[in-house]
Amino acid sequence: MRRCRIIAAVPTAALLALTACTTNSDNAAPLNIDDATRIACDTFSSSHKGAHTPQARTELVNKVKVWARQSIANGLPAAAVVLVRDADGSARAWRQAAGDFIHACTQAGWKAT
Q1: Which of 85, 83, 89, 37 lies closest to 60 in space, CA to CA?
Q2: In a domain, 17, yes or no
Q3: What is the DSSP letter of 51?
Q4: pTM of the prediction?
Q5: 110 three-state secondary structure
Q6: What residue numbers bound the domain in which 102 lies?
Q7: For residue 51, how many other CB atoms are within 10 A of its CB?
Q8: pLDDT at res. 31
């Protein structure tokens, strides 16, 4: 009788162990992103709201574009080109380009800190 209980307990323990190892999307680890993507996105995110003048925007974009060009993330280099183009543009164009760049960052797996 004791042997039956032990044999039945082993599959139950294995099933519980496998269940404990599963993850849901809320607790999943973030995507691994390359350093260039992380630096470009961190730099832009921390400074873009304070870049009110075309000169301040251009200075920021000059820092960001160096890293964005080295990024392996789909869409980030192209989003940086739009930032460069719209740095001297209207406030509306800048906001759109900034939003698109942040979106490209999040699509690459970057999360704001």
Answers
A1: 83
A2: no
A3: -
A4: 0.71
A5: coil
A6: 35-107
A7: 18
A8: 59
